[in-house]
Amino acid sequence: MAGRRSGEREPDVRESGDAELMRVLHEQHGAALWAVALRTTADRGRAQDAVQETLLRAWRHPAALDPSRGDPRPWLLRTLRNVLIDEWRSRSARPELLSDDPVGAESGTAPGGYTVAHHAEAAVQAWTVAAALERLSAEHRAVLVECYYRGRTVGEAAATLNVPAGTVKSRVHYALRALRLALEEMGVGS
């Protein structure tokens, strides 16, 4: 203990590693989690609480963050979804007398009639598919974006991508197979 002042304790290696893990998680995924939580809850305080709870659960389950398992974002988003659903159920079981949420305060629905669970599920699905698309080749990603996200026909996609229609059909077929594999590798639908 030479060199330490009285009352100082030796730094814990695990604590500094945990702090670094939390910093990196927040740096890499905090903005995405915050956006989903805020869009789902429409309440900054509840969104912040949900993100903190999600990161806390990640800290408690470090195996889910193992790089050999791939990108941890889908796991974090599923965990955020679960946190939001749990929070919504808790609020539904103990309704507040006064609410800052003028739309759907009693029914647990958001504007448009969607539930918190629906918004959370849709956000998780969107982030998961986006992460899986990043794993595809540029050609496969482009043809799926044109045909599925932009709703173009095979002919329109062929004109946009400047390839024959037969090539678009073939790429869509193989791109969907590759997307399915990427999702399975990420632990979705396996």
User: Structural class, judged by helices and strands?
Assistant: mainly alpha
Distance between the termini: 53 Å
Proportion in β-strands = under 5%
- Whole-number average pLDDT? 76
The helix content, as a percent range, equals: 55-70%
- The radius of gyration is 22 Å
Uncertain residue segments: 1-16, 102-107
Largest sheet: none
Shape: elongated
Topology order in helix (H) and strand (E) letters = HHHHHHH
How many domains?
Answer: 2
Number of helices, counting only DSSP H or I runs of 4 residues or more: 7
Number of strands: 0
Topology:
Elements: H1 13-41, H2 44-60, H3 73-93, H4 116-133, H5 138-149, H6 154-161, H7 165-185
Structure description:
With 190 residues, the protein is mostly helical. The chain has two domains: 15-134, no CATH class; 136-190, Arc Repressor Mutant, subunit A. The chain has seven helices and no strands. The protein starts with 12 loop residues before the first helix and ends in a 5-residue tail after the last helix. Residues 1-16 and 102-107 have low confidence and may be disordered.
Key descriptive features of the protein:
Arc Repressor Mutant, subunit A; 190 residues; disordered N terminus; 2 domains; 7 helices
Task: Characterize this entry briefly.
This is Sigma-70 family RNA polymerase sigma factor. The protein is built from seven helices and no strands.
